[in-house]
Design goal:
mainly beta; 3 helices; 250 residues; eight-stranded antiparallel β-barrel; two-stranded antiparallel sheet; Porin
Length: 250
């Protein structure tokens, strides 16, 4: 019996000695090992695309002018097509009739015109915005007829002190088949107010290349070119509403 008690005590103290040994120290990670570890960062995969397609609209200033000015009638359609991120091919075509009243004459012009060119968008849009601040250039061409309705003769003779009463003549001479060519520089803004619906405002400076005159009388107004000044220059203003028909998104 004593033999079993002694054996039990021996094994008990041996087990107690092993259980009281401290745990092995943790292995430290060196700076070199930390630098070798890579961290996976999740990238943002959200992309914003805008529509590429045909945008067509109307210049509303011309119909409004026709409502308030009986001497004017006109309509202009506008369009552009986006070919790259910032470049658009653009065109305007229309018809105008205008009666011009001067101090000593009354004349009129009516006809059709077309303008072809391109716009460059200089505005950097945020996220899914689709606005423009653009500069554009056009080549313009018009075919029209011009009518000299009336004019007044000179009211005095520079060689004598006598005064002669003016005389109004009404020849109503019309010449058809006249044409004009010009270059046009534009600056404007387009804003997407609703989905694919745009409002645009722009101004233009026109430089006449070739403007045909009625025989014996200078052309004072050219459809699409507007009033012709002495230097063969003109100015324009447009306010348009247009709608984008998107074909693809990029």
């Amino acid at each position: 019996m004593l033999k079993y008690i002694i054996s039990f005590c021996f094994y008990f103290f041996v087990f107690l000695g092993f259980s009281q040994q401290p745990p092995p120290p943790k292995q430290k990670t060196t700076l070199k090992e930390k630098s070798n570890k890579t961290t996976t960062v999740k990238k943002d995969t959200v992309t914003y695309k805008t529509g590429y397609g045909l945008r067509i609209g109307i210049d509303i200033t011309k119909p409004l002018r026709g409502v308030f000015d009986e001497s004017y009638n006109g309509l202009e359609l506008v369009g552009d097509y986006r070919i790259t991120k910032n470049w658009y091919v653009a065109t305007e075509l229309g018809y105008e009739e205008e009666l011009t009243f001067e101090d000593y004459s009354t004349s009129s012009a009516k006809g059709s015109y077309i303008k072809l060119g391109a716009n460059l968008n200089t505005y950097e849009n945020w996220l899914d915005m689709n606005n423009e601040v653009f500069i554009g250039m056009r080549y313009g061409f018009a075919i029209y007829e011009h009518t000299l309705s009336s004019y007044e003769t000179n009211t005095s003779d520079p060689e004598t002190p006598f005064y002669f009463g003016s005389e109004t003549k009404t020849p109503n001479i019309t010449q058809t088949g006249l044409s004009a060519h010009w270059l046009e520089f534009q600056l404007g803004m387009k804003t997407e107010t609703f989905k694919n619906l745009f409002l645009s405002i722009s101004g233009s400076y026109k430089l006449g290349v070739s403007i045909e005159d009625q025989t014996g009388f200078e052309t004072l107004y050219v459809p699409g070119f507007n009033r012709v000044f002495a230097s063969n220059t003109g100015f324009g203003f447009n306010y348009t509403i247009s709608y984008l028909i998107p074909f693809v998104k990029k």
